[in-house]
């Protein structure tokens, strides 16, 4: 199968996903699969209370945008696929947000390898159905996509995502295989106090999208010593209705009670708590903050903590920063943990 065949198949898959976020004309093949995927979306919502329709819609729209012909061609133009040695790549996926493992799945197949997928029980309905549709679009994918719930066997390399604890297990278990092992990471935002209201509103999307469960969600902000939180709370106000969602509200109430009983200082506005803390991973409904005196010292601090950080959201702070509101809209070439997955796969 040529690279262009693989690209074309994923372009068509992107079109299929667009049918659930807009109303373009569906062809006969799409029509046959639409009802089935609607059922999978319904099952995903029922199985995982964090996978609301709003979050599923956002995930589908993100992949619709990413899987354009221009994006796929721009992404693949950076590599030489002519010398790939086809192998079987095992992927152990997380399940914190919908289709969180899709980029690894896409990368393996676009490189010409076969994929052996072990999904999280929290996100097990969507990808197998999309894989069947992909095989219909491009029959040469048949036999190259396998899902398993059993022990992983007969694979040549592995991409595994998990917590810091499971990562230690992965590193030991897969020590004899080429691997990418991903651990806990969180994203941070750098505020100066000069942000516009529009920027702070956009930041609220980085905080609240997917309830803050993704590694690209901002869980911590760095603020100047004299920072006034009034503008910040005005900016995040557009997400006020999130407190009406029961799972989020339960976490908010629980964490607030813990903070009060522990006599921790914190600020809150009825749906978000802000607490000073040196940690990166904040609980649901909480954002941690830490103060800084000068930007150079902060840059040194963040460099020393780079293994804990996925994204840095800022405006004019660093060359690798992400604009406010864009953390959950990565491009195909924005790799998790800054590890080039395709380069790893092509060198096997």
From TrEMBL:
What InterPro entries does this protein's entry cite?
Ald_DH/histidinol_DH, CoA_reduct_LuxC
Q: Which UniProt keywords apply?
A: NADP
Protein name in UniProt: Acyl-CoA reductase LuxC
Which GO annotations describe the biological process of this protein?
Answer: bioluminescence
**UniProt keyword annotation of NADP present:** yes
Specify the domain of life of the species encoding this protein.
Answer: Bacteria
Report a single Gene Ontology molecular function: acyl-CoA dehydrogenase activity
Annotated SUPFAM superfamilies: ALDH-like (SSF53720)
Q: Pfam families of this UniProt entry?
A: LuxC
């Amino acid at each position: 199968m040529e690279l262009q065949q693989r690209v074309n198949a994923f372009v068509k898959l992107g079109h299929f996903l667009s049918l659930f976020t807009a109303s373009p004309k569906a062809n006969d093949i799409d029509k046959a699969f639409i009802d089935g995927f609607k059922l999978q979306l319904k099952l995903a919502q029922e199985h995982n209370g964090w996978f609301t329709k709003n979050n599923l819609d956002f995930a589908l729209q993100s992949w619709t945008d990413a899987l354009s012909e221009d994006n796929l061609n721009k992404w693949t133009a950076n590599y030489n696929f002519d010398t790939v040695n086809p192998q079987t790549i095992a992927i152990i996926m997380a399940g914190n947000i919908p289709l969180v493992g899709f980029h690894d799945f896409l990368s393996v197949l676009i490189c010409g390898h076969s994929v052996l997928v072990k999904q999280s029980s929290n996100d097990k309905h969507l990808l197998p159905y999309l894989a069947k549709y992909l095989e219909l679009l491009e029959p040469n994918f048949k036999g190259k996509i396998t899902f398993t719930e059993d022990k992983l066997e007969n694979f040549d390399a592995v991409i595994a995502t998990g917590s810091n604890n499971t990562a230690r297990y992965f590193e030991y278990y897969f020590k004899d295989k080429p691997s990418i092992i991903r651990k806990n990471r969180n994203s941070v935002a750098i505020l100066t106090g000069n942000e516009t209201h529009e920027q702070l509103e956009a930041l609220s999307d980085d905080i609240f999208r997917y309830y803050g469960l993704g590694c690209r969600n901002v869980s911590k902000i760095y603020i100047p010593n004299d920072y006034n939180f009034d503008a910040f709370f005005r900016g995040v106000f557009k997400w006020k209705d999130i407190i009406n969602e029961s799972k989020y509200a339960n976490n908010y109430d629980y964490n607030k009670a813990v903070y009060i009983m522990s006599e921790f200082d914190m600020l809150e506005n009825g749906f978000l708590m802000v607490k000073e803390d040196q940690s990166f991973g904040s609980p649901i409904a909480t954002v941690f903050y830490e103060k800084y005196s000068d930007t150079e010292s902060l840059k040194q601090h963040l460099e020393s903590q780079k293994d804990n950080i996925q994204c840095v959201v800022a405006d004019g702070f660093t060359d690798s920063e992400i604009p406010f509101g864009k953390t959950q809209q990565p491009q195909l070439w924005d790799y998790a943990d800054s590890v080039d997955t395709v380069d790893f796969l092509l060198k096997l």
